Amino acid sequence: MARIRTLDEMMCLFRCAKLDASLSSFVRPVQFSDQLVSDDYKLFEVDSELADELSTSDSPRIIELKDEPGKSGFGRVYACAADQTYSVVETETSNTLLLVPNDSAPIEKPLDTEEPKPAVVYAMKTSYLEFHPCIAPSLRLLKQKMLSSRYHSPFDDELDGDEDSTIRPPKFTRLELTAEFPCSINELAYAFVRLGIFEIEGFMRLVDSDYLVQVGGS
C-alpha cells in the first residue's frame, strides 16, 4: 500500500521548517509510490548553460561517463562532453530529495478554491554528482602509453612488421585511445597535436621528432 503524508502533516512540517508563509499555498499531500525506483536515477549538478543545452529536446549534446583505469581497478570518474571534461564528485545532500513528475508539483500559485492534489514521489535521493571542469587527458600518461608505438620512419616500420607478432610493439586505434582515456573528443585531438601523434595506416603513432624535421624540410 502506498504511504501518504496528509496535507495537515505537510503543513506541520512546513511550519517547523519556518519557511516563508506566502509559500504555504504550494504545500501538497505527499504520496510515496508502492515501488520506489531510486536506484534508476542519478542526480547531476551542472552550470546553467550546460543545463539549458542538455534540456533542449533537439540538443545533440551527449555526455559520456568514463572511468579512469587504476592499478587496483577503476579510479576517478569523468564526464566527457565534445569539448570539455568534468571530474565527477559524489556529494551527500543535507536533506533527502524527493523526485516527483513535472505535473505533480505546482510551479504557479494555485487558486484558493483548488483542491490540493497529492505529489507522487517515485524516487528518493540522498546524494548527487557534481561536475568540476578539469584538464584532460594527462599528457604524461598518454605519451607513456604511446612510447611503445613510436614511429621513426617507413623503413623502420617495415622491419618491425617482419618481426614475430608475439614480440611486435602494440599499436592502438583512435577508437581504442578514446575509450581508454577519459576526456572529450576535442581535447584528445588537441593532445595528439601537442605530442606529435598521427594516424598512420589506421593506427595512432607517436612520430619521432627527428623524422618530423626530415619530412618538414624535404
From TrEMBL:
Recorded superkingdom: Eukaryota
Q: Which GO biological-process labels does this protein carry?
A: DNA replication; maintenance of mitotic sister chromatid cohesion
The cellular component terms of Gene Ontology attached to this UniProt record, alphabetical and capped at eight, are: chromatin; chromosome, centromeric region; Ctf18 RFC-like complex
User: Which key words are in the record?
Assistant: DNA replication
Q: Enumerate the Pfam families for this protein.
A: Dcc1 (PF09724)
Keyword Repeat tagged: no
PANTHER family the UniProt entry points to? SISTER CHROMATID COHESION PROTEIN DCC1, SISTER CHROMATID COHESION PROTEIN DCC1-RELATED
The family assignment reads: Belongs to the DCC1 family.
Q: What is this protein called?
A: Sister chromatid cohesion protein DCC1
